[in-house]
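Summary for the steering committee. The consortium agreed at its last meeting that each partner would contribute one worked example illustrating the joint modelling workflow. Our contribution is presented below. We chose a case with several input lines so that the handling of multiple components could be demonstrated. No manual editing was applied between input and output; the record is shown as generated.
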Amino acid sequence: MNFGTPPPEGPGPSSDDEVVGWVGLSLLPGVGPRTVAVWIGRAGSASKTWRHLPIFLGVKAGREELLAAWRSIDPEAVVADARSKGMTVLTLGDPAYPRALRAIADPPPVLYVRGVLDDAPVVAIVGSRRATPYGLAAAGSLAADLVRAGVTVVSGLARGIDGAAHQAALDAGGRTTAVLGCGADVRYPPEHGALAEAIAASGALVTEFSPGTPPRRGHFPRRNRLISGLARGVVVVEGMEDSGALVTVDYALDQGREVFAVPGSIFSRRSRAPHELLRQGAHVVERAEDVLSELGLSATRRVSTGRTGDAGDDAAWLLTLLEEGPRSSDDLVTTSGRPAAEVAAVLSMLEIRGLIQTLPGQMVMRTPMNRRTR
Amino acid sequence: MLATILSVTIVGLEALPVSVEVDVAGGLPSFSIVGLPDAAVQEARERVRAAIRNSGFEIPPRRIVVNLAPGDRRKEGSALDLPIALAVLVATAQLPQTSVQGYLAAGELALDGALRPVPGVLAAAGAARQLGVRGLLVSEANAAEGAAAEEVPIYGLSTLRGVVDHITGRRPVTPATSPVSHAPPEAEASVDLADVRGQPIARRVLEIAAAGGLNLLLIGPPGTGKTMLARRLPTILPPLSRKEAVEVTTIYSVAGRLAPRSGLMWARPFRAPHHTASAAAMVGGGSGPRPGEITLAHAGVLFLDELLEFHRDVLDVLRQPLEDGAVVIVRTGGAIRFPARFTLVAAMNPCPCGYRGDPRRECLCTPAHVQRYLAKLSGPLLDRIDLHVEVPRPQTNDLLAGSVGESSQDVRARVSAARERAAERVADRPMPPGTGWRRWGPIDDAALSFLRAATDRLALGGRAAERILRIGRAIADLDASEPTRAEHIAEALRYRMLDRAPSLSS
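What follows is the complete predicted structure of the assembly.
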């Protein structure tokens, strides 16, 4: 694997000067991570590079604009701002910088982190923002089982699949990392404000954008490279032909990550992306073990499967009927041959006990073990 | 010379007695009508003049004044043609006053003297007894309707000449008899619940709605049979009582919607106004108010398809009738009360595109779209809807090979039994208003604790809990159970889909 020009790794947490240098360099418009790496390689440190930037610029085009930017950027203020908002500023020079990410071709020079990045194995779960109930359930159930096996689940905090994966990971008491396409202090998407806070409290919010940066269209593909970059494997749950999840997959392949796909309904356009990936050789995911074994991880705690036991009474027949997936109440009546009144009453009892969930279209689904609240 | 004959004008659903007085005197030839006639009554002059002439009588060139008493109430419609013509004949000495004495006449005249049917004959027949009338003179097309009241003899005649021949005894006719016996005709409905294949949950909900007299909202993609289900609700409701049948027939008669020569209506009405209907079309209106859709649905079913397409103000006017079982229309002439005790069945798509939850078609609505769409529903009307259930697309094999469900007749038997039990219970112990959980009848402790757990878990409001108790009671009555039990409450909970709307948009 090509690690590119290896950036220098300092002996300990880099000094504030260094951090300021890195931040300044990361804020230069039109200067990418690779250029920064080359400059620092020559200067020996980020702070020196930043201070003597005009030397490195040479006579290349855009020199004047860069110099103007260099004069106007105040990286110290940015760092102070980030820290005052509870963020950690992680630079490529910092040993705490995530290893997996450091290994990609263009790691972001600076990461702003709310919460703590640990070194547990990471799996990304990504998919459609407008997901079907099935997709949400699949993402949630996989995320929960993965965190139970000691994996950190990373995703993009978007609506739909992303949100379901984060939420399920949190609900299962696990760790999850959200990679943002805006500043870590910007609430986006707005309805995930509470979710973001919860993630920051027990996992991490990560972004390469400085505080206050608004979400922009162009930010999200860049963010996707961090999602795959942080992870050892990427699981695609749902997506249409042009889904952003496919961008993440492209990065994952460039970065040498494993790609997994969860099969969907053949009637749904949201199955196009995962099915296309499967066609191209992605690994099929039916349960978390499929991901864990492929990545050489073992489930630290066995995930239970046959779980009719806790229904315990005359409702077990109904749970058995739901073993193969969601069914409509009508279907349950027809298949069981029991009166509609009885089926409805039993469904209600099971729902109150949290053993099943009702989805749109009168569909009933068993609650995955780990999502149960009581 | 002066002549008097009795007739009626319809106010609301009631027949108001009108005394038709005609005076013929010397002076410039004229024909005038006084006593607050409306335009249709004014035009009676022309019809009466021509009908008299073309029936072989004559109108002498004198001053004819028609007075309609009481003089301070508006008279409407063409039913006064016949009494005016008869009074003119008496006043011009072509008929003896004694011949019209004691008769009540109501009918429209054609220019050739033919007698045409008019609205409200059943109401007129109902009023006739109190007026001490010996017979009702109406068009033969109205005779069956009048006879259905079984109050006074009804004479159905087809021309003005025929009326004269009858009252003068030259060619008397026999009173019409009610064409239909007391018992409602069985199995004449053209639709049956057996037509519905599969969809056991929807059928069950229909049965509960019928047993409890509960309002129902069906939510489902286009083409899943919501209209088909709604149409079959009247067929499983208990048969109309005679009193209800008279009420319904009177409403249709007054609205001019009764087929000629028909007697009492025994089928429960089913009304499905289009969503462009105005508020006036819905509750009734006009200067002499006519019954609207909700009154035409009295004792039957009012079906609102595409509920959210109805104008907001139209839905708003439904609230009070849903509560009171009647609508009061206030006009300068006074307030008119129309009965409107109907079962509301509404239908709507689950989302703007209609395919949410459909396994075969993809819904492209964003959660925000769906939320905004469902938000339109909220409010006082939704509070008055007891049951809301989803009607998913039936499985294809249910449609093709699926077992034929029970017939309307079988279901109706259970519904009637449940309603009788409910009536007995209420008679035994009248419902004390506002006494909390037990207001809807006896309920056991397990049911109450289950309800508490459910309201807790699903975060239900007090109003939702109230509705669940009502539904549970209807289920218990169907089950012939004295107290409402936990399984009844549990089942009821399944039929309150919108209470858990937040989880739907998860």
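The longest strand of chain A covers residues 110-115. Residues 133-148 of chain A form the longest helix (16 residues).
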